[in-house]
User: Fold these one by one.
Assistant:
Number 1:
Amino acid sequence: MKIGIDKIGFYAPDLYVDMRELASARGIEPDKFTIGIGQEKMAIAPITQDTVTLAANAALNILDDSDKKKIDLVIFGTESGIDQSKSAAVYVHELLGLDSAARAFEIKQACYGATAGIQMAKGHIALNPDSKVLVLASDIARYGLNSPGESTQGAGAVAIVMSANPRILALEDKSAYFTSDIMDFWRPAYSDTAFVDGKFSNEQYSLFFETVWKQYRSKSGLGFEDFEALCFHVPYTKMGLKALKPVLEVEAKEMDQQRLLENYQKSIQYNKVVGNIYTGSLYLSLLSLLEHKEGLKEGSRIGLFSYGSGAVGEFFTGIVQPEYQNQLKIAQHVDQLSVRKKISIEEYETLFVEELPIDGSTVKLAIENDSAPICLSGISDNKRQYINKQR
Ligand code: HMG
């Protein structure tokens, strides 16, 4: 039985910062951000968007009534959760009006969370072929104003419906994974910004890619010639390339290198203008490939490299399905990104330090300024109040 991705969509908040303006404000040569890092724009979440609303908005764009009835498992991958106990999945389950005969929970392993969710969903569908699983990947990446990681922030979510006989990508069974306890990037519970050893994290990302690729190659007997494209976890769009190029140069023929490097460019178009969305980044890259590469052939193999600091890496694969193009919402995604509002660096700095009360006081937020259908409308009695304006 084929199992995999039947639907995929994303949501990014309606505000962004231009990376050239950020560079100028920080006294940095703009080419460092646009070429050296590879980012054009960075999505900024207003206070009325959190990981719950970003994910719910992403899912709202793809679900129909039949999905809502059939989804019996909601898995929410995030490393910017809003509660130590209650999972973000339960909030989204309610906001979308999903059937109550469902499981819902949250999982965490930095940017690897959603991949763990996808593999878990695959097992669930193998046992329950009629079920559908909603996998959500949602995060707000925060390193701090004026920090070395500032140019690699972002905000957004990807929603994926997994099912049997998927119409977009059937996941193959062979996969290679690797875990090692390292401190390249982490965020203690008392901090709302990440701690990072930037150079070390880059080295480890590349090392993990090389490790899982070699492991995958010997498990599967496949090589770069068997892949139409490779998608990477994209903390910034130069990162995947930095890991891929040295391995390609040693192992791949000229024509395979050319194809994979060309398709890498297709796979980073959305990430370039959204920024790092942590656990959703790999899946935003997959979506970018599907929506920017003209006419991928049925049966093409796509490789996916997932990396979550701390760290876990996995390389797995999927096969493009004949009807995949009918399942995409290209116009909606292009429109969503083009109507975003650019904010100045001063406005971004003000939003960055804006905080919800942590002393139990009540707050009502100005949701009329947020174009998203699902928003955080305030806090009362220590409970987040969410609203779906479409209901
Ligand atoms: P940095 O020190 O600001 O930048 O750190 P740099 O000096 O390394 O320069 C970056 C690149 O810009 C270099 O290119 C420069 O040559 C180039 P490279 O050598 O890499 O090819 N450059 C220029 N290019 C053109 N014109 C210019 C110019 N000047 C310089 N004028 C760093 C960059 C990414 C380390 C920093 O932003 C950071 O710490 N970011 C956060 C950590 C991160 O994203 N790590 C990635 C791997 S870990 C990961 O992916 C997991 C993660 O997503 C978290 C999770 O799992 O949850 C982060």
Note: Residues 3-167+328-388 form a domain with the Peroxisomal Thiolase; Chain A, domain 1 fold (CATH 3.40.47.10).
Number 2:
Amino acid sequence: MKKTILMLLMAGLLVGCGTNFKKYKSYDEYPVYNGEDLELTYSPSGSKFRVWSPAADEVKLLLFDNGLEGAAYMMKDMHRSKNGTWAVAVSDDLKGKFYTFQIKIGEKWMNETPGMWVKAVGINGKRGAIIDFKETNPEGWENDKRPELKSFADITLYEVHMRDFSVSPTSGMKYKGKFLAFTEHGTKNTAGQATGIDHLKELGITHVHLLPSFDYASVDETKLNENKYNWGYDPMNFNVPEGSYSTDPANPVARIKEFKQMVQSLHKSGIRVVMDVVYNHTFVGEESHLNLLVPGYFYRFNKDSTWSNASGCSNETASERPMMRKFIVESVVYWAKEYHVDGFRFDLMGIHDIETMNAVRAALDKVDPTIVIYGEGWTAGGSPLPEEKRALKKNAKQLNGVAVFSDDIRDALKGSWMHSEIPGFVSGTDSLEESVKFGIVGGVQHPQIDYTKPIYSKAPYVNGPMQSVNYVSCHDDMCLVDKLRSSRPKGASEDEIVRFDKLAQTVVYTSQGLPFIYAGEEVYRDKKGVHNTYQSPDSINQINWDNKTKYIDIFNYYQGLIALRKAHPAFRMTSQDMVQKNLKFLDMKTKNVVAYTLGNNANNDSWKEILVIFNGNRRPVGVQIPEGTWNVVCYNGLINPSGVLMQVKSPNLNIPASSAAIMYLAVEKP
Ligand code: CA
């Protein structure tokens, strides 16, 4: 699309170029198509094609024998149909064939596109594939069930990239970098310790969150031997799995079937699956599959007609337009139904409008209300859509059932994401106590928090703790170990870094809300100090599974934290009221110490009163603890959630440097 045509279209100046061309003064005048049969409806007796492109003058369907190369063996003119659509039917059985559409605007034929609703593609995603979806279902798929989930508060998230998980020689896995790696059991590292899905079960997480696994553009699927790495935030086909993660990207069935095998295998292991979805932009703007279908419509523009760029990736989609909203809503529902996906993480959710996110929630509720939705409540740049309409963190109260990442707790614990040398609470920086407390309560209103002090948010932004995703690091920016090392206070040893690490995740796993970790943190993963590893090689990004042996103490500690959280609903309260009633902060005399109690058998906990103390100082501190005898389950970097490390009596307790203490009131037998 040349900018001149786009600008003319936007100005409503392309009048009467074709015989049936209707003048639209703006995109708002485009008719909306509500049907669910857009682009392709296949059956052995025939295929029906329907394209929505109201401003087109002509539309063609092209059919091919090959998914990437060769000329069309058949071309068909599509005819104008209802509500801005163009339709044509082909009565042959087209299974095994490929297709594209071509749109003519004025006198110009645009480049071919497989469309945007396309559900199967040839290699590199340039042509749509006509397949029989029944052939994509693995054996037993009809019996696949989502593992039980009673409350969003019960979720523990594990964010992982397909290659990071399996590609290291120490993974012991066969399907390196593939969906099928998640189907491999009995895999071990060099020392014989469990890796892969068995490791995830040992760890105890409830949800695997997959970095982009829809079809993205940056990895050439015809050159897999190059082992090119990318996070995948460059969407090409939103409704198709990524080809490079399949064993045969040239076979359109393989990637779909193998994605389903992955989901099925995780479900069998009791683990749910979250997809990272990136509807906020496309890899390219003018030549994207969306823009070749309906030029301009799916994107936002600045007043001067240049492409707006809230994504930082040179374009941003326009969820407020009815057909883009319809697309996003139907796309997530499609993944939930066809692939049994259990949750969605919205990349740069702050680009989308609030109405769209609420429509996504409502549509997924109809599929299964336990499907989790969370997102980044921010953007990577300014957007023309007014802030009050966007799904930003500060508007989260208008997003019921949609959670947002808490950058407040993240940067309070580890220090600024932007300045790698600045340490956080766990590395001994004081004055971050209120931010830590803000995270502990899951971002809700709490009478003991001074909301003028948290580093980012100056007011509670959620309706309840289940709207807060608590974390200390993710794929973006330095991973936890690298950040702790690069902000290392003078004289801090590596043993101290380990203490900082454990303290940080102790806060994450005991806070109200949804805890989230970046894969490999439980085995002390680092990325060699690289900030932005989106296209770094495997050598930087891969999880070295031998770390599990070397840092087994850290793994055991993380495992213990997850087990503690799972066993004790007090850490998983479900409402602001509950948090206000049961969570009380203690008045600490020492700086950089945060302590609180969870009382009243909070959320039906078996423990009447729980005491949690975080000492962010790099020296031991003495604290006064509430009256009673306390059974200590976590102390000085050790945790035993099902036993007792020691008993302590009030009023004084020594908390070792950079560590957490968790205990519960010993109830004497009557
Ligand atoms: Ca791809």
Note: The chain has three domains: 2-136, 152-571, 584-665.
